[in-house]
Specification:
Layout: E1 6-7, E2 15-16, H1 26-40, H2 83-97, H3 117-132, E3 140-150, E4 157-165, H4 169-177, E5 181-189, H5 195-207, E6 210-212, E7 217-218, E8 223-224, E9 237-242, E10 253-260, E11 268-276, E12 290-300, E13 313-316, E14 320-321
Length: 322
């Protein structure tokens, strides 16, 4: 049995590294495979409302590309107990996440290759690298999928809602598990030359993109509520808010809210933008010009992994209010 150090996988299956004198057992292969399969399979079916990192995983990439090894069997190149197949999965995961492929794991075994204890142990360490960084793809591409505009001045509160629809709850969870995000950005142009318009132009620019990730929100300005996709319910919750104005505009703010259509079978994510001109045109001018709100998506890149991350469809509603 293996006698090396334990490689701890929080929420997964711990692995024990092998040393030169160890007899390699089926578990030395299968425990690594179990963790790989967990990451590559459909997302864990957890109920939304709270986020527990240890129980959140799964990218929906079809599962491990190799069957389990059996006791008394041989380690082969491919097929059940195929070490190269295991390497292929680890190499793909490392490519997706931007993790360095460790020594020995980066060179595919062939018939007649001696698999060293270092290679066995480094494969386990690479699995841990990927597990611990499973929400952080190497790169993402941000895009504007839709935009809505308003050309009428306003003095109170404007509201706009965008829906993001996935074909299944597995795809919805898999998108966020892979580091995907949806959100909103905005801008204001034209109109009157006054401090009020300058305030809103700057406010929207400073906020920039406001993203909903699996466990939190993020923007270039303002305050996150620390609520992500996994903490959403079917009722709107504030995920981000930004004031950021000078007097007399200190009470004006942008609030971003989010909810889902179901906490047990989520397929639709709703992002709501609320713009409040708290001065109510009493001590300041009415904002005018062209207000634009954008439906934004931050899509994980495959990075040569061969992975296919789900892409939701959006529907951006009109900007309403007065």
């Amino acid at each position: 049995m293996p006698s090396g150090s334990t490689v701890t996988i929080t929420g997964g299956t711990d692995m024990v590294q092998v040393t030169t004198s160890d007899l390699v057992e089926d578990g030395d292969f299968n425990n690594a495979r179990i963790n790989i399969n967990t990451l590559l399979s459909d997302a864990a079916d957890v109920t939304l409302g709270t986020f527990t990192e240890s129980s959140t995983f799964g990218w929906g990439q079809g599962g491990a590309g190799v069957s389990a090894a059996s006791a008394g069997g041989n380690v082969s190149v491919t097929g059940a107990g195929g070490f190269k197949d295991l390497q292929d999965d680890v190499q793909a995961m490392c490519a997706f996440l931007g993790q360095t492929v460790r020594t020995g794991v980066d060179t595919d075994v062939t018939t007649g290759t001696t698999i060293t204890a270092t290679t066995w142990s480094n494969l386990m360490l690479n699995v841990k690298d990927c597990w611990d960084n499973r929400f952080s793809p190497a790169s993402k591409t941000a895009s504007t999928d839709d935009s809505v505009t308003r050309g009428t001045s306003w003095t109170n509160t404007l509201t706009q809602e965008t829906t993001w629809t996935f074909s299944s709850e597995a795809e919805c969870r898999g998108f966020f598990n892979a580091g995907g995000a949806v959100g909103v950005s905005g801008s204001r142009t034209g109109g009157s030359t006054n401090d009020q318009n300058t305030n809103w132009t700057n406010k929207l620019s400073n906020l920039s993109d406001c993203w909903l990730y699996h466990d939190t929100s993020a923007a270039s300005a303002g305050t996150s509520a620390g609520i992500g996709f996994y903490e959403l319910t079917t009722t709107y919750q504030q995920i981000h808010i930004y004031y950021g104005g000078s007097s007399p505009y200190t009470s004006d703010y942008i609030q971003i809210n989010a909810k889902v259509n179901s906490t047990t079978n989520p397929t639709v994510v709703y992002i709501q933008a609320v713009l409040v001109d708290a001065g109510d045109n009493v001590i300041d001018a009415a904002p005018d010009g062209t207000l634009t709100l954008n439906a934004r998506r931050n899509q994980p890149d495959a990075n040569g992994s061969g992975f296919s991350i789900p892409v939701p469809t959006d529907s951006a509603g009109a900007i309403t209010g007065s």
